[in-house]
Amino acid sequence: MINGKLRLSKIGDIKIKLHRQIIGEVNTLTISRTATGKWYACFSIDTTIEPLLAANKPIGADAGLKDLLTLSDGTKIEPPKFFRQAEKALAKAQRKLSALPKGSKQRKQHLVKSVNSILFHRQRLLSLSQIDISAQ
Length: 136
Known about the structure:
Distance between the termini: 37 Å
Shape: flat
Radius of gyration: 20 Å
Strand content: 15-25%
Number of strands: 7
Number of domains: 2
Order of helices and strands: EEEEEEEHH
């Protein structure tokens, strides 16, 4: 990594957006592309592991459709209101998508635009909820 660029052999320098510092020695690098066309680099590193604080009791979490999370003790975490708005927007986008010709570039672009933001919000919210639960 040099000046915000990742140097790959046989390819060259590629701009990269690092979300956190790489601590340790990089073993391997896996570059993958999602169905929506985004590229990701996953670093495998050697580092020392710091032990976590002992939890009071184990807890399980189930991600659902009606409730965002249901914990093993019965606590339910409700989804925020933007999911209801997103469901309406997704339904509208799916109706429009069904009218577009299959296999067309326009259909793929529409699918990426409509689904990508909803998936990102849900994954982020689940991740933050799990971090909050583990901190308790």
